[in-house]
From TrEMBL:
<dbReference type="InterPro" id="IPR003673">
    <property type="entry name" value="CoA-Trfase_fam_III"/>
</dbReference>
<dbReference type="Pfam" id="PF02515">
    <property type="entry name" value="CoA_transf_3"/>
</dbReference>
<dbReference type="InterPro" id="IPR044855">
    <property type="entry name" value="CoA-Trfase_III_dom3_sf"/>
</dbReference>
<protein>
    <submittedName>
        <fullName>CoA transferase</fullName>
    </submittedName>
</protein>
<dbReference type="GO" id="GO:0008410">
    <property type="term" value="F:CoA-transferase activity"/>
</dbReference>
<dbReference type="InterPro" id="IPR050483">
    <property type="entry name" value="CoA-transferase_III_domain"/>
</dbReference>
<dbReference type="InterPro" id="IPR023606">
    <property type="entry name" value="CoA-Trfase_III_dom_1_sf"/>
</dbReference>
<keyword id="KW-0808">Transferase</keyword>
Length: 403
């Protein structure tokens, strides 16, 4: 496709007022912005989003000195414009209400009813802008006995069952519940919010009306238990921590090698037979204890030690080369520096660099969505606090501020 065939990003023309902070809401705002929306982030003057202070590390300038921008903030605020407005004041509240009248979407993650006292809740704003899609993200939702509680990713990973299936099994070294290494519940909630917003915008094309989206971190975490929830609900089995093992597939886990570890992800009997051939034990695939996945599950405790004895005899590179040639899914366990040095990651362009006012440039992770006709556009780096206040007030409200 030539450059002349490329269309503007799909959400071009959509205005989003982002009152959220930390990760779940900002993640949704960044994704909408990557897809072309004009996302205006409202921040408290002098402080801004909480994550602006979540350092070190901080973004470094060309001389290697720290700027004031925490790297945490950078991960979720690309392509946005920042306006500094104090919503605790009547003047600030009036400005936000005026911006909301011009918006298609509003994102917020205040506590339930937290914006009502400012006249910035959905019921108040829809009177002036009935087409507004208003997305509220909270820990526990707008209803229920926990609605008033504050909710954080770590807390929800525990309450929502994720930590009960993450970590080493009881009785093994290092046993105990373990959170995931990134705030995964926040990220998943941001993704669900993005989907919900786009669905509401599509519905608005039919009805002409916006609506309120009620998203809870706890709801999202439980929805994302996937097969583990189904194992309990339909199978009657309460899942437990299994370390790197899989509850339904064997062998599907990490195995030690002569110089490290690899992941072996055997998804069917044919792949297992090919692995056995590469391992020099073709008899394993015909052994009635291991010939089918159901049998391998039943005899996991017998099979896994046999596999470990085999995998430690060769290096990780040797195993990966041999198994890839045989069509057996496998791979290394990379540190993050190795991730960004991987040739596949480089070929896919997953690290991008944007110009930055303080640092000269800022490295970021690319959006993974690949649209052939209306691709993601990287228009702006994560903004400085209040960087676009005058610009946005002029464009959205026609208000000229004195420099």
């Amino acid at each position: 496709m030539s450059a002349t065939d490329v269309r503007p990003p799909p959400l071009t023309g959509v205005r989003v007022l982002d009152l959220s902070r930390v990760l779940a809401g900002p993640w949704a705002g960044q994704l909408l912005a990557d897809l072309g929306a004009d996302v205006v982030k409202v921040e408290k003057p002098g402080a801004g989003d909480d994550t602006r202070a979540w350092g070190p590390p901080y973004l470094e300038d060309a001389s290697g000195h720290n700027t004031t921008e925490a790297t945490y903030f950078l991960c979720a605020n690309r392509n946005k414009r920042s306006v500094a407005i104090d919503t605790a004041t009547s003047e600030g509240q009036a400005q936000v209400r005026a911006l909301a009248q011009q918006a298609d979407v509003l994102l917020e993650n205040f506590k339930v009813s937290g914006l009502q006292r400012y006249g910035l809740d959905y019921a108040s704003l829809k009177e002036a802008n009935p087409r507004l899609v208003y997305c509220s993200i909270t820990g526990f939702g707008q209803t229920g006995p926990y609605a008033a509680r504050a909710g954080y990713d770590f807390l929800i990973q525990g309450m929502g069952g994720l930590m009960s299936v993450t970590g080493q099994p009881d009785g093994e070294p290092g046993a105990g519940p373990q959170k995931v290494g990134v705030a995964l519940t926040d990220i998943m909630t941001g993704l669900y919010a993005t989907i919900a917003v786009q669905a509401a915008l599509a519905e608005r094309e039919k009805s002409g009306l916006g609506q309120h989206i009620d998203l809870a971190l706890l709801d999202v975490q439980i929805a994302c238990l996937a097969n583990q929830a189904s194992n309990y609900l339909a199978g009657g089995m309460v899942p437990r921590r299994m370390g790197n093992a899989h509850p339904n597939i064997v062998p599907y886990r990490a195995f030690p090698t002569a110089d490290g570890d690899i992941i072996l992800a055997v998804g069917n009997d044919g792949q297992f037979a090919r692995f056995c051939t590469v391992a020099g034990h073709p008899d394993w695939s015909s052994d009635e204890r291991f010939s089918s996945n159901a049998q391998r599950l039943a005899n996991r405790a017998v099979l896994v030690p046999l596999l470990r004895q085999a995998t430690v005899m060769r290096s990780s590179a040797d195993w990966i080369a041999a198994l890839e040639a045989a069509g057996v899914p496998c791979g290394p366990i990379n540190h993050i520096d190795q991730v960004f040095a991987d040739p596949q990651v480089i070929a896919r362009g997953l690290q991008i660099t944007l110009p930055h006012t303080l640092a000269g440039s800022v490295p970021l992770v690319a959006n993974p969505i690949r649209l052939s006709g209306s691709p993601v556009a990287y228009r702006r780096p994560p903004p400085l606090l209040g960087e676009h206040t005058a610009e946005v007030l002029a464009q959205w409200l026609g208000v000229q501020t004195v420099a």
